[in-house]
Specification:
By secondary structure, this protein is mostly beta strands. The protein is 6% helix and 66% strand.
């Protein structure tokens, strides 16, 4: 076996929640997702992703606002990855220890044409803001 992956997702959903700022009835959701991944002799990474989101619908448009979305990563490099870093130093930028804080706002619109009611068109738009910090063990 070359790779071992383990993940768990825990979600708490609160229906009929009044979304702050927008003053709309919708759904609130709290997510918690721990992950563990190990690539034999390459790396071991542990992460925790958590966040709060609000979702509401108005006619044929669904809005989703995630604030905040928090991601934490911890990386252990193993001998084969250390050797790969020596061969290609730029590879190190793909493997980071650190954290990410972000917010997202999504709009999903569904349109059913009158001429062809058996066809559904979906339009999505997502806007994100993100800030991250890297661990001290990585070069700047």
């Amino acid at each position: 076996m070359q790779t071992f992956l383990s993940s768990l997702n825990i979600s708490y959903i609160f229906p009929n929640f009044t979304v702050p700022i927008f003053n709309r009835k919708g759904t609130a959701r709290i997510d918690l997702t721990p992950n563990y991944s190990e690539r034999n002799n390459f790396f071991r990474i542990r992460s925790l992703v958590t966040g709060l989101s609000f979702e509401w619908k108005r006619r044929n448009v669904v809005y989703q606002w995630r604030i905040p979305n928090l991601e934490f990563y911890s990386l252990d490099t193993l001998p084969l990855l250390d050797a790969a870093f020596k061969e290609n130093p730029f590879l190190r930028t793909s493997f980071n220890t650190g954290s990410v804080v972000s917010t997202q706002f999504s709009v999903i619109k569904t349109v059913i044409p009158k001429q062809r009611p058996n066809i559904t068109n979906t339009y999505r738009s997502r806007h994100s803001g993100r800030s991250s910090s890297r661990g001290n063990d990585l070069p700047a």
